[in-house]
């Protein structure tokens, strides 16, 4: 992603339209954070989904858009200026109404600078930027946490997951105080979502019932959420925390 997608700062405009950035991270392994990130992107009016976990296998596989044409993280080479959202949108893969920036199956790392530039381009374009974070603190993770309007921690509903989420919560809050919790069932021991939220010291944004069919959906072409599904309802509840976004004029904000 080179000079064609950037514009000098002095020539770019900002008409006051700003989208939101949401960072999603698992409070424990296997919590379903990436699935929620996809649901958030699909539930937003217009979304940019960023995969910041180079070891996650590629979030476009969850969408079913691994064959969509467009740039991936290893293709980026940012050299000054700031990015225009219209150019970024046209360069990235788009699948089922979601613009996606993911990685490749070969090794790579994401730096903080490109993350900041892409997030800001999306926000200036008045889209909702969803960042799917790894459970390790890299410069890219920190950049996304710092830029986020809301950090969403996803936890399973069991004792060990509760302990892991409780340990992570203050670390996240040190980077961004706007942290909320989503709890995903089932609850094998009868632990309730509100109890996990109380122990972790985080506000409960949503609780999701178990959806065992999701794994099969991924294997058969990617996740598709019915509007009334537990995950889609939870995604709307999370997005409802954010203030409304005023669309950019002509959809062409810088």
TrEMBL record:
Source taxon at top rank: Bacteria
GO cellular component, one term: cytosol
Molecular functions (GO terms): ATP binding; ATP hydrolysis activity; helicase activity
Keywords linked to the UniProt accession: ATP-binding, Helicase, Hydrolase, Nucleotide-binding
Statement: the UniProt record of this protein carries the keyword Hydrolase: yes
Any Gene Ontology biological process: negative regulation of cell division
SUPFAM superfamilies, A to Z: P-loop containing nucleoside triphosphate hydrolases
Descriptive protein name: Helicase
């Amino acid at each position: 992603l080179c000079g064609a997608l950037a514009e000098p700062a002095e020539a770019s405009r900002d008409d006051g339209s700003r989208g939101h950035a949401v960072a999603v991270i698992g409070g424990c392994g296997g919590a379903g954070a990436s699935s929620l990130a996809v649901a958030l992107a699909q539930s937003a009016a217009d979304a940019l989904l960023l995969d910041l976990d180079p070891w996650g296998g590629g979030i476009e596989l969850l969408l079913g858009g691994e064959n969509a044409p467009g740039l991936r993280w290893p293709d980026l080479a940012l050299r000054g200026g700031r990015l225009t959202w219209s150019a970024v949108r046209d360069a990235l893969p788009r699948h089922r109404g979601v613009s996606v920036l993911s990685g490749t199956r070969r090794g790579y790392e994401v730096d903080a600078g490109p993350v900041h530039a892409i997030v800001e381009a999306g926000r200036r374009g008045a889209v909702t930027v969803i960042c799917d974070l790894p459970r390790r603190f890299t410069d890219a993770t920190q950049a996304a946490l710092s830029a986020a309007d809301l950090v969403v921690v996803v936890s399973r509903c069991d004792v060990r997951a509760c302990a892991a989420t409780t340990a992570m919560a203050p670390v996240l809050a040190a980077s961004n105080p706007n942290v909320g919790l989503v709890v995903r069932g089932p609850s094998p021991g009868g632990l309730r979502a509100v109890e996990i939220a109380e122990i972790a010291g985080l506000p409960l944004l949503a609780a999701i019932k178990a959806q065992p069919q999701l794994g099969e959906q991924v294997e058969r072409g990617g996740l598709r959420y019915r509007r009334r599904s537990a995950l889609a309802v939870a995604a709307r509840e999370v997005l409802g925390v954010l203030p409304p976004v005023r669309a950019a004029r002509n959809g062409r904000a810088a």
